[in-house]
Design brief:
This protein is mainly alpha-helical and about 110 residues long. Helix content is about 80%, strand content about 0%. It has 4 helices and no strands. Helix 1 packs across helix 2 and helix 2 packs across helix 3. The chain is rod-shaped and about 90 Å long. The N and C termini lie far apart (about 85 Å).
């Protein structure tokens, strides 16, 4: 049977390789077939998907991959702070300069 279209998304979300997720999907299909006794019914697909998500959660808990995504986002924002501060400073200087020039033109 073909794997569901969301299998790659679930695998990436759990941090599991796609090949391993496909093996877990096949295992979930076998267990759903044994549980329901019928193939292709809505009960079968519901049981297969529920078991797949359980197996994927179990597999995710066995992985020891560090979660560095939030750390990298924080570091990116911290790296941009000096640039954002400089941009704000130059905007304020430009606005002040424009006000100064407008006052000089009105006075003349």
């Amino acid at each position: 049977m073909k794997a569901p279209k969301l299998l790659h998304w679930h695998a990436r979300k759990a941090g599991v390789p796609v090949e391993r997720a496909e093996a877990l999907w096949r295992k979930a299909l076998r267990e759903a077939t044994a549980d329901t006794g019928w193939v292709g019914t809505s009960e079968f697909w519901g049981a297969a998907e529920a078991r797949f998500l359980e197996l994927l959660a179990e597999e995710q808990s066995t992985l020891c991959t560090p979660h560095v995504e939030s750390f990298m986002r924080t570091q990116h924002r911290m790296g941009l702070m000096p640039l954002l501060a400089a941009e704000q400073m130059f905007s304020a200087m430009s606005a002040n300069w424009q006000r100064f020039c407008n006052r000089m033109n009105k006075a003349a």
